[in-house]
Amino acid sequence: MVLLKKINNYLSLVKFAHTLFALPFAMIGFTLAVSDERYTFSWLTFVLVLLCMVFARSAAMGFNRYLDREIDRRNPRTNQREIPAGIIREKSALLFTILMAVGFMLSTWFINTICFYLSPVALVVILGYSFTKRFTAFSHMILGLGLSLAPIGAYLAVSGEFALIPVLLSLSVLLWTAGFDIIYSLQDEEFDKENSLRSMPVMLGKVKALRLSSLIHFFSVLILVIVGFLGEFGWIFWTGMSIFSILVLYQHLLVKPDDLRKVNVAFFTLNGIASVVFAVFFIGDRLMVIGNW
Fold it and tell me: Are 182 and 213 in contact, with CB atoms under 8 Å apart?
C-alpha cells in the first residue's frame, strides 16, 4: 500500500494523465512511418517509442515542478502540489527527473543513432521550457516546441530520416499547444504580474491574448489542411481533422476574458479528446492504406 501511494504521488507530480496530449501525436508519427512501404513495423520500436514518451514527459514535468517549487508555494492555485505540500521532497523530485532523463536517453540508444544523437537536444528543449517564463512571454511557444517533438520523433524512430509531412504535423502540434497554453495561463495573469513572470496574458492582457490564441489555433488547423492535401489523405483523415478542428476552436467559445470558469474544461477535456480523436482517425486512414482497402 505504501509503495502504491508513492507511485500515485509521482504520477500526480507529473500529471501522468496529461500524457494524453502528446502521446496520440507520437502514435500518429509512428503510424505515418510504418504506413510507408519503405519501412516496417516493429514491436520493439513501438514499445521504445512509448517509453521515450513516458520518460521524456515525466522528466519535463518533474523538472518543472522542482524548478517552480517556490513559485508554486506562493500561488494559491498551485500551493497544494506535491512539492510545496511536502508530499514529495525536493531532492526526491530532482532525482526522479534525472532518472527519467537517463531512461529517455537509454531508450533512444536502442532505437537508432539519429534519435540518440538528438536526445540531448530534445532534453534541452523540454527541460529548458521551465526557465522561459522568467524572461519571455513566448514561453508558450517553447512548450509547444517540446510537445511538437512527439510526431517527428516517432517518425524518426521508424525511418531514421526527416520528411515534410511529419515536420508539418509537428508545427501544427506546436501551434495547437501554444494556443491552449495561452488560454490556461489566463488564470495566473495577476499572480504572474506580481511575481515578474512572463506570459502572453501579462504582456497583452486577457482580451488580446485570447485573440492571439484564436489566431494561433487557426494556423494550426490550416497546417493540418495542408497536410491532408499534400499527403493525399482519404475521407477518414478529413473526418478526424474536422472533429479535431471543431473541438479546438470550440474552447474559444467557452473561455471569456471576464469568465474563466471553464478554462479547465477547455484545457484538459476538449484538447485531450481532440488529440485522441484525431489520432484514431489518422491511424484509421493509414491502416486503410496499409491494407489497400
Answer: yes
pLDDT digits (tens, 9 = 90+) for 72-98: 999 998 888 889 988 999 999 999 999
Q: pTM of this prediction? A: 0.93
3-state secondary structure of 12: helix
Q: Is 80 helix (H, G, I), strand (E, B) or coil?
A: coil
Q: How far is CA 51 from CA 57, 108, 112, 198, in A?
A: 10, 9, 14, 32
Domain that holds residue 60: 2-291
- Cα atoms in the Cβ-side hemisphere of radius 13 Å centred on 87: 18
The distance of Cα 100 from the centroid of its chain, to the nearest Å, equals 17
Domain count, the chain: 1
What residue spans of the chain are helical by DSSP H?
2-13, 23-34, 43-67, 69-74, 90-109, 113-132, 139-159, 164-185, 189-194, 200-204, 206-230, 235-254, 263-264, 271-291
Single-letter code of the amino acid located at 224: L
Residues 151-195 pLDDT 10s? 999 999 999 999 999 999 999 999 999 999 999 999 989 999 999
What's residue 268's pLDDT?
74
Q: Nearest Cα to 104, choosing from 46, 54, 148?
A: 54
CATH number at residue 16: 1.10.357.140
Please tell me what DSSP assigns to residue 88: S
Q: Mapping DSSP to helix (H, G, I), strand (E, B) and coil, where does residue 256 land?
A: strand
Residue 103: which residues within 8 A CB-CB, separation 6 or more?
51, 55, 59
Bridge partners of 259? Answer: 256
Chain centroid to CA 152: how far?
Answer: 13
Q: Which three cell numbers stand for residue 71?
A: 513559485
